[in-house]
From TrEMBL:
Protein name: Radical SAM core domain-containing protein
InterPro entries: 4Fe4S-binding_SPASM_dom, AdoMet-like_SPASM_containing, Aldolase_TIM, Elp3/MiaA/NifB-like_rSAM, Radical_SAM_PqqE_MftC-like, rSAM, rSAM_sf
Keywords of the record: 4Fe-4S, Iron, Iron-sulfur, Metal-binding, S-adenosyl-L-methionine
Domain of life the protein comes from: Bacteria
GO terms for MF: catalytic activity; iron-sulfur cluster binding; metal ion binding
Cross-referenced Pfam families: Radical_SAM, SPASM
Coiled coil ranges: none
Keyword Iron-sulfur part of the UniProt annotation: yes
Cofactor(s) recorded in Swiss-Prot or TrEMBL: [4Fe-4S] cluster
Span of domain Radical SAM core: 50-278
CDD domains to which the protein is assigned, alphabetical: Radical_SAM, SPASM
Length: 348
């Protein structure tokens, strides 16, 4: 079992039965994947700028079927349901593919399995040249038929948010979910992948540690480390400094003395209505870099607003930026971007 801790805005510890998951995927995907992950580490740790985004996040639908304790959506009004058309999506990922963008996530703060065109979108992304295609899901709608279709379409990573090792804790955290149904869905996914003799997508099971589930962290790791390809434990990061967010895990402390954010060096986020954002934070919705269908991803990526954000993050002068200061002052573990902050790895 390989344990890897990343020091970034969301502190994550991975427990992988495949060894280093990037190395494992590099063996399966080849040199292009290894080069992309090397560039990712340079963008993340060194704030290095590349002439293309390394990661495209696309919100194809804007709805969710659960209400979860740690999610900002549980405390904000639900948006008017919307879905990105397949024609728009096709044009978007083809442009990103021409730019050389290597990785794609087909969701933002939504449930991607609510998208009836999801399987087709995964297949189109693979055709466009993406080598790392990801989904983050709550897994409730991951039927055996959907699992089979996603495997065949070319999905690279399937990340499932569980957040509990017992049905009682799951019910308290994930309102509207069905723990037994989720377990059955994941068992079926693994069986189907084995039946097809497929190695992708890798399965990641995640827990965001808050007051309600911190007593189950060890049990969660033990339950999933031999069934999933890797297990991730993430420290809860509040979306604001309001009392409700902070009391989810009151022992954590915000700090902002020498932190910054690498997301503007890594990614572009495209919302369901066509806006392009520099990050995945809920606050980031207030920083609209442009509309991809008006300006194009290339001009937005190298445009003055995006470049100014990068200069600000490099020099750590974000304190006067109303959006970035709100976000970074509310995170528990800032991204220090120093040589000492490289991932620590140990094999057990």
């Amino acid at each position: 079992m390989t344990v890897t801790t990343t020091t970034e805005t969301e502190k994550v510890t991975d427990y992988s039965r495949r060894g280093d998951i990037d190395a494992y995927l590099g063996q399966l995907q080849g040199e292009a994947f290894r080069r992309y992950r090397k560039e990712w580490r340079q963008a993340e740790k060194e704030l290095r700028f590349f002439p293309y985004p390394l990661f495209l996040v696309v919100e194809t639908v804007n709805t969710c079927n659960l209400s979860c304790a740690m999610c900002f959506r549980s405390r904000t009004p639900s948006p008017q349901p919307a879905m990105m058309s397949l024609d728009d999506y096709r044009r978007l990922i083809r442009e990103a593919g021409r730019l050389g963008c290597p990785s794609l996530s087909l969701n933002l703060n939504n449930e991607p399995l609510l998208d009836p065109l999801l399987v087709e979108r995964v297949a189109l992304a693979r055709e466009a040249g993406f080598i790392d295609i990801r989904l983050n899901t709550n897994g409730i709608l991951l039927t055996p038929e959907k699992s089979r279709a996603l495997i065949a379409a070319g999905l690279t990573r399937l990340s499932v948010s569980i957040d509990a090792a017992s049905e009682e804790t799951y019910r308290r955290i994930r309102t509207g979910g069905d723990y037994r149904r989720l377990l059955n869905n994941l068992e079926a996914f693994v069986a189907i992948r084995d039946e097809l003799q497929a190695v992708l997508p890798v399965l990641r099971c995640t827990l965001v540690k808050i007051r309600e589930n911190e007593h189950e962290v060890d049990a969660f790791i033990n339950d999933w480390q031999q069934r999933a390809d890797y297990v991730s434990i993430q420290s809860y990061v509040p979306h604001s400094n309001d009392d409700e967010s902070m009391t989810l895990h009151p022992d954590q402390q915000a700090k902002s003395a020498n932190v910054t954010c690498s997301q503007p060096f890594e990614r572009l986020v495209v919302t369901v209505d066509g806006n392009v954002l520099p990050c995945c934070s809920p606050q980031g919705a207030e920083i609209v870099l442009g509309r991809w269908d008006d300006t194009g991803l290339a001009k937005i990526w190298t445009g003055p607003q995006a470049m100014n954000l990068r200069r600000m993050m490099r020099s750590r002068c974000w304190h006067d930026h109303p959006v970035c200061s709100s976000c970074l002052n509310g995170t528990f573990d800032g991204h220090e971007n120093q040589e000492t902050a490289l991932p620590e790895k140990e094999t057990t």
